[in-house]
Amino acid sequence: MSRAPDGGIPSILEFTHGLVRQVVRSADTVVDATAGNGHDTLFLAGLVGPQGRVYGFDVQAQALENTARRLQRHGAERQVTLFHAGHEAAGRLLPAGTENLACAMFNLGYLPGSDKQVVTTWHTTEAALRAVMPLLRAGGLVTLHLYTGHAGGSAEAAAVHDFCAALPWDGWRVLRYDFLNKEKNRETLLALCRQ
């Protein structure tokens, strides 16, 4: 695990990216379930390289435009397919034969700098998880970055926690990473590793 730039404890984003780097290799197939402004999409595209494939989902056209521009600026658009759909559509939009996924990344909440009323919900997140989890290879990873500083965020996070806590030990390992004393804009990472 890489250390934070200041030598301290890694932020949730740094910790997440460190975990993903340990799992994703060149030519892998991965999912960015919430493309947002394209930061994780670009990160994943760099890991899988031109021979790999990233499938990105977002319900907001502006998010996909932001992501596409970011990918183009870095010459990484070739290995990415973007879907203008919520992540709950993964089950029907991922191409037939998509299996052995190395990773699926989720950032739950709302698109920074956009309409805070457009948010992920447990209903859509559950559908997405149930679609992508069976496609993960052994050792594959799902990351769920939970934000609770918006309306409905705490309820979604609680439902995600309950779902993950109920996963069988013989099939999954679930890691939780957060800062207990962070008072504002609470966030938590849940990382699910398929056994």
Automatic annotation (TrEMBL):
GO terms for biological process: methylation. It comes from the Bacteria. The keyword Phosphoprotein does not apply. One of its GO terms (molecular function) is methyltransferase activity. Transmembrane segments: none annotated. Gene3D superfamilies: Vaccinia Virus protein VP39. PANTHER family: S-ADENOSYL-L-METHIONINE-DEPENDENT METHYLTRANSFERASES SUPERFAMILY PROTEIN (PTHR35276), TRNA (MNM(5)S(2)U34)-METHYLTRANSFERASE, CHLOROPLASTIC (PTHR35276:SF1). This is rRNA methylase.
